[in-house]
Amino acid sequence: MRGNPEKVRGIVLSAFDYGESDRIVSLFTIEHGRVKAFARGARKSRRRFGHALEVFSRIEAELRLKVGLCNLQEAMADKTFIGIRSDLAKICNAMYACEAAECMTPEGHPLPRFYRLLSSYLDHLDSEAATESDRRFFEVNMLNILGYRPRLDGCACCGAKFGASGAVVSARGELVCKGCGEGRSIDAGAISLLSESLAKGRFGVVRFAGEELMQAGVLLDSAIAEHAGKRLKSLEFIRQNRF
Q1: List of domains in the chain
Q2: Residue among 112, 118, 116 nearest 93 (CA)
Q3: Please, what is the end-to-end C-alpha distance for the chain in angstroms?
Q4: By three-state DSSP, how is residue 218 classified?
Q5: pLDDT tens-place values along the chain, 243 residues long
Q6: pTM for the complete prediction?
Q7: Euclidean distance between CA atoms 141 and 220, whole angstroms
């Protein structure tokens, strides 16, 4: 990373106060992927930052890049997602998406496809009700973009194609045939919906429901836990409140 200031577009993944007037923020930018930045005087300077550094805001910022903690010179909110902030279920799902992005993406590595996915999910949540089906759509596409997608066309162990009887979910969040492992069953219909989610370009088109939603959730939760390396606090809150 160079030290020259430049204009970037990003989404605020997390932020916390530092000292009396500063903030440290984690951003996912379209230009440089995930970066952490120090915003000097952010809590006092309305001119340079305003309300831009709220979690899951989409912003335009001037950033001085460097290894470790970058310097955030100024930021302006492009969209603060008022529709999300007025609904607790939407807030929880937006926070979850940002926490997953922070846990699972490499620092300083541009991933424009993932930026667009995260941004599109926030846009969708801003205008539509928060649903588990849309969250699952986000998750399977996130895993795919980051290179962690479970194999959906055949057993992760032996390569055998899945038939009408479906497959089972291993402890590592992989799909295996019933001859290669034991675990929670996932039907062919749920596997088909996961594959369809990767082929569709927008939220709200693919709908999981009932047993297929539960089964897809078992696979995706296992895969994300395996690659995130820790339990996501926002996901636990979603589960407790059944959002």
Answers
A1: 5-80 (2.40.50.140), 83-241 (1.20.1440.120)
A2: 118
A3: 39
A4: helix
A5: 456 789 999 999 999 999 888 999 999 999 999 999 999 988 877 778 888 999 999 999 999 998 889 999 999 999 999 999 999 999 999 999 999 999 999 999 999 999 999 999 999 999 999 999 999 999 999 999 999 999 999 999 999 999 888 999 998 899 999 899 989 999 999 999 999 999 998 999 999 999 999 999 999 999 999 999 888 999 999 988 877
A6: 0.94
A7: 10
